[in-house]
């Protein structure tokens, strides 16, 4: 059995480069798709809730009620888009979606405020979107609590008492993302997700294309070994994927303003490892599929679970233990930890070595299985 031959390996690399040059539409898509997807998802995937459409039924028009409405709008969470005159109007607005929140101010609101008494207001929230409902409820509760403290202080002042001192004071410090902007969290994850999908699909067609075009037989009669063939087919796409990665990284930092707090060299090095891992996954898919349509179906069957299990959309800590284990077989899980660790926290390899090992193990597993599945004979 012959050893690994660099000459045979480079011959496969040259052949694949020629194939890539001839397939210019696929090359253009490989370079343009990451940019398009980053723009699309960068603006579409946003968990920050703002400008919730709010209807107001003010039955006690006064400076107090206007102050309350102004406080709601100043949070930038609520946007008053309509005024109602009855519960029926509010019901219609909530039903047709013209309003997601309705504030009802009772007739005795101003009178109770003048007397220093506790005044009640009602907020009706459309709970069909839990994220909007939770944000609206928590912000409204905070504003009402502040108003309650103000009323209590006014009452104590009328009674000749001093200002009320808080019994407990909370000193909150948000690290890594002080403004809690979702885009700062999402952009690194999007870079990983986009690069996984593009590179995996690129190589998923590699061997399948040889089968469909009838050139696999020519490779079979050559002395090229499976490892040489598979690595040779991966190599050109590593450079294409790396160029695409640099483009989306530049776009993410320059256009969306998400800085890299950690080592750029470490980020690039581990990104190359991730690209090789996902390209190997694509090669494995190409050894399973018999047609390009099958390769596409298998690739997309892997993409959705990777989005759900990797922690891109939902925190993995809240998932059942079994689901967390399943997420451990997805390379994107480890790369997201690396991206967010370097982008947001500025950590080094001492905090990311476990994720690096996870990708190395996945790469070795995929390349081994792909070699075992590849047979230099027509099945």
Give the proportion of residues in helices. Answer: 55-70%
Structural class: mainly alpha
The shape, in one word, is elongated
Helix-strand pattern, N to C?
A: HHEHEHEHEHHHHHHHHHH
Give the strand content: 5-15%
Largest sheet descriptor:
4 strands, mixed
Poorly predicted ranges (pLDDT <50, ≥5 residues)?
none
Average pLDDT metric:
85
Cα-atom radius of gyration = 29 Å
3D structure, described in words:
Helix 1 crosses helix 10 (226-254). This protein has helices at residues 6-22, 24-44, 63-74, 87-96, 109-115, 130-158, 182-204, 206-213, 216-220, 226-254, 264-288, 292-309, 321-327, 331-345, 349-373, and strands at 52-58, 78-83, 101-105, 122-125. The model has no long low-confidence stretch (mean pLDDT 85). The longest helix has 29 residues, at 130-158. With 379 residues, the chain is mainly alpha-helical. It is elongated and about 95 Å long. A 4-stranded mixed beta sheet has the order 2-1-3-4, sandwiched between helices. Helices cover 66% and strands 6% of the residues.
Topology:
Elements lengths: L5 H17 L1 H21 L7 E7 L4 H12 L3 E6 L3 H10 L4 E5 L3 H7 L6 E4 L4 H29 L23 H23 L1 H8 L2 H5 L5 H29 L9 H25 L3 H18 L11 H7 L3 H15 L3 H25 L6
Parallel strand pairs: 1-2, 1-3
Antiparallel strand pairs: 3-4
Helix pairs in contact: 1-10, 2-7, 2-10, 7-10, 7-11, 7-12, 7-14, 10-11, 11-12, 11-14, 11-15, 12-13, 14-15
């Amino acid at each position: 059995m012959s050893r690994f031959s660099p000459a045979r390996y480079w011959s496969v690399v040259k052949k694949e480069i020629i194939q890539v040059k001839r397939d210019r539409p696929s090359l253009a898509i490989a370079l343009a798709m990451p940019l398009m997807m980053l723009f699309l998802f960068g603006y579409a995937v946003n968990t920050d809730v703002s400008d919730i459409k709010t209807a107001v039924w003010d039955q006690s028009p006064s400076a107090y009620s206007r102050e309350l409405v102004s406080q709601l709008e100043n949070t930038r969470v609520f946007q008053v888009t309509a005024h109602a005159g009855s519960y029926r109007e509010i019901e219609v607005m909530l039903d047709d979606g013209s309003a997601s929140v309705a504030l009802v101010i009772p007739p005795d609101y101003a009178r109770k405020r003048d007397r220093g008494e506790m005044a009640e207001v009602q907020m009706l929230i459309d709970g069909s979107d839990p994220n909007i409902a939770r944000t609206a409820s928590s912000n409204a509760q905070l504003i009402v609590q502040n108003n309650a403290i103000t009323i209590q202080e006014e009452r104590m002042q009328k009674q000749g008492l001093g200002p009320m001192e808080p019994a407990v004071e909370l000193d909150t410090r948000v690290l890594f993302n002080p403004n809690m902007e979702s885009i700062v969290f999402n952009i690194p994850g999007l870079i990983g997700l986009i690069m996984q999908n593009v590179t995996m699909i690129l190589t998923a067609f590699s061997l399948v294309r040889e089968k469909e075009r009838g050139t696999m037989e020519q490779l079979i009669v050559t002395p090229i070994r499976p490892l040489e063939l598979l690595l040779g087919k991966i190599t050109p796409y590593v450079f294409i994927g790396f160029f695409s990665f640099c483009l989306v990284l530049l776009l993410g930092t320059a256009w969306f303003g998400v800085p890299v707090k950690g080592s750029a060299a470490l980020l690039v090095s581990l990104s190359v490892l991730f690209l090789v891992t996902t390209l190997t996954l694509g090669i494995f898919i190409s050894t399973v599929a018999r047609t390009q349509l099958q390769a596409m179906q298998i690739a997309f069957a892997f993409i959705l679970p990777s989005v759900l299990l990797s922690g891109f959309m939902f925190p993995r800590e809240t998932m059942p233990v079994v689901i967390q284990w399943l997420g451990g077989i997805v390379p994107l899980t480890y790369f997201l930890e690396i991206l967010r660790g370097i982008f947001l926290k500025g950590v080094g390899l001492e905090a990311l070595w476990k994720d690096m090992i996870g990708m190395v193990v996945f790469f070795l597993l995929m390349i081994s299985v792909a070699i075992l599945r590849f047979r230099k004979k027509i099945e």
